[in-house]
Amino acid sequence: MLPQTPPPGPTRPGFWRSPLRGPWLTSVFGLVLLVGIALMFVSGLVSYAAYNPDLAVGNDKTPDKGLLGFYLFSWPTRPYWLYRLNQGVHVTLGVTLIPVLLAKLWSVVPKLFSWPPVRSVSHALERLSLLMLVGGALFEFVTGVLNVQLHYLFPGSFYTLHFYGAWVFIGGFVVHVAFRVPTVAKSLRGRSWRTELRTPAVRTEPEPPDPTGLVTPNPAAPTMSRRGALGMVGAGSLALLVVTAGQSIGGSLRKTALLAPHGQEPGKGPNGFQINKTAANVGIRDRDVGPDWRLTVRGNGRETVLDRAQLMALPRHLSALPIACVEGWSTDDQTWDGVRLSELAALVGIDRDAPGVFVESAQRGGSFASAHLRDNQVRDPLSLLAVRVNGADLSRDHGHPARIIVPANPGVHNTKWVTRLTFGAPS
């Protein structure tokens, strides 16, 4: 049996001496996270749906998701900036909330060392939810930031681990919120925001003793007011917003995206916009995209093979579309020139009600060498097999001789170095 008296160290109530800790400050941070994390979770689920994982095995990065895929829906193509907006919000908000998350963890650190560790069944459930909440939050934020900064696949697939980690985290989050909503509401009503924001450090006093154990019985002299703590956290979040948001907003603000390594322009000219994977990275060779390159179009039991000159001779159209990446960066609208996917389907006798298409690339390494597109994506008049951009031929890194560009599509599904289109391919 555990002793009732806590051992020396962080389990002792007097070990944590900051006079700022208490239900009110914790509730303020918690309220911000409640709104922010809910929006992040929803935008994350929407982002996963944009991959059309229920369309085909090749698109499904979490094949064992089971009931967790209950919400999936057919991803639309309009508005054409939908994925750019959703993923920009998801990544930018995640980075911006980091100071708030750290502040919230600081405010409740005494609870992590409460003694005895378990006092009842309800307390055990609360502690379990806290473990899921803290562990899940740290895992999601750390893996998300690593992927954004380094295009880093945490041991295994980032998509799989981030997806399941989100569900574990949100489970703990929901349970924790259910336990804490009454306390949060009472704490926020119990103290005046105006008074707290006007109180300097010299007049800052601990909150009254509370059953949560956050208020220290042995407070140290304050070195900062609660106003100062909130201001410091807010300034940190604002700074991260400023150096991150430009990667999604674009224009002149793109240069402010200091924390977006994929958000910088790789040069000037018609092809001077972001590149996530280069031809060299994925093993593209000269002969793969040189004069011997061919495009094979299959479907309806027929097959047509085109060289580049024949492809260029087909009727071409223009589409002004951005590229938006799961890492949060996106380009401004680029003017793409190419053949509509629906008209390529017509080459093999599919004149109306074009089905989905399986797109294959010449790339030999890396991920997303192929992708399935839905029928609505094929039929959209903005969906092209592009051969030029901004009035110039595609550069090799942008997919020369031909690449897919589809409105509201995740960037990795806008396949580059296309060699084969199979319309009506089974999933």
Topology:
Blueprint: H1 23-49, H2 82-96, H3 98-112, H4 121-150, H5 158-190, H6 193-198, H7 226-242, H8 246-249, H9 286-289, E1 295-299, E2 302-306, H10 308-313, E3 317-321, E4 334-340, H11 341-346, E5 357-361, E6 370-373, H12 375-379, E7 384-389, E8 392-393, E9 403-405, E10 418-423
Parallel strand pairs: 1-10
Antiparallel strand pairs: 1-2, 3-4, 4-7, 5-6, 5-10, 7-8, 7-9
Helix pairs in contact: 1-2, 1-3, 1-5, 2-7, 3-4, 3-7, 4-5
Looking at this protein, list some descriptive labels.
427 residues, 5-stranded mixed sheet, 39% helix, OxRdtase_Mopterin-bd_dom, membrane, Oxidoreductase molybdopterin-binding domain-containing protein
Textual characterization of the structure:
- Helix content is about 40%, strand content about 10%.
- The chain has about 425 residues and is an alpha+beta fold.
- The chain folds into two domains: about 240 residues, no CATH class; about 140 residues, Sulfite Oxidase, Chain A, domain 2, CATH 3.90.420.
- It has twelve helices and ten strands.
- InterPro entries: OxRdtase_Mopterin-bd_dom, OxRdtase_Mopterin-bd_sf.
- Keywords: Membrane, Transmembrane, Transmembrane helix.
- Pfam families: Oxidored_molyb.
- It comes from Streptomyces tsukubensis.
